[in-house]
Amino acid sequence: MLNIINNKNIFLTISLIVVGAAVVAMTAFGFRQGIDFAGGTLWQFVITKDSPSADSLENFFKINLNGADTIVTYDSSSRTFLARLPEISEENHQKLLSALKEKYPSLEESGFQSIGPSIGSELRKKSITAMIIVLIGISFYVAFAFRKVFQPVSSWTYGLITLVTLFHDVAVPAGLLAFLGRYANVEIDGNFVVALLVVMGFSVHDTIVVFDRIRENLLLDRGRTAFTEIVNRSVNQTMARSINTSLTLILVLLAIYFAGPPTLQYFILTLLVGVSTGIYSSIFIASPLLVTWHMWRKQ
Predict the structure, then answer these.
(1) Rounded to an integer, what distance in angstroms lies between the CA atom of residue 46 and that of residue 171?
(2) For the chain, which residues make up each domain, given as ranges?
(3) How does residue 118 score in pLDDT terms, banded at 50, 70 and 90?
């Protein structure tokens, strides 16, 4: 049996360093916001013959949009271009479309979406509110679910530590996206928020599995064994289940990441990092924090 609790300082230090780096990345770099949050235009089209380079299309849009900042990406497998532009009117959209078709007759438009800054700002606020509500709601639910366990730690302690582990699991992928936004021009959008909410769901599931086993062992033991030993035994009893369950999801996500559409690449990456972090936190963070809190209260 692995003695995870006795080595808790090592695991907590690793997490502290990783989360600290993620917070620094988010603070220093911020997030490169997509059109969902900042407003703008997302234009998707296919050019089947004499396909130009993404750089040449970027120059075309900059010339026709008075030097506005534009990003064009290309998916070679489907010959699809994805242009991120400032917000443009339908009249300008049709003018640009006519100019592009004149230059590239094989062009076929497959998608056009334009969002104003006010709508993007409202969506950003609602996304932040949704995440805060989810965090608080999960913490209250865990505290209520463990209300019958009041020794040696209160039910609110379980809820508080669940909140800490959720922040841990969300901060790491968010910090990675902030870093990629600074050095790889990766933008966050509504999919990013959805991915973080999914990560929270899987993270709290694994954490509750461990906490529930601790609760069962506490009720069966009736105070005969030290709390530290009960927690360590509970973590070892649930470790294989947590890893195996999450590993099946990770394998599916890896398949989608490498074989799926490019538009979902960073959505899947966020899930991959978040789920992997959730495995670590449910085993090496949540329960050690429970013991650390108990020892601190005793002292």
Answers:
(1) 37
(2) 8-35+119-298, 40-115
(3) low
Average pLDDT, the chain: 86
What is residue 295's predicted lDDT score, i.e. its pLDDT?
82
Question: CB neighbours of 209 closer than 8 A, spacing ≥ 6?
Answer: 238, 241, 242, 282
Question: Beta strands 40-47 and 71-75: pairing type?
Answer: unpaired
What single-letter amino acid sits at 195?
Answer: A
Same fold, 8-35+119-298 and 40-115: no
Instruction: Give mean pLDDT, residues 212-217.
Output: 86
pTM: 0.82
Q: Class assignment of domain 8-35+119-298?
A: mainly alpha
d(CA 152, CA 154): 7
In the block, tokens 């007759």 appear at 105
CATH code, residues 40-115: 3.30.70.3400
Task: Kindly write down the DSSP assignment for every residue of 136-164, as one continuous string.
Answer: HHHHHHHHHHTTT--SSS-HHHHHHHHHH
Enter the tokens of residue 252. Answer: 């599916």
- The C-alpha atoms of residue 153 and residue 113 are separated, in whole angstroms, by 52
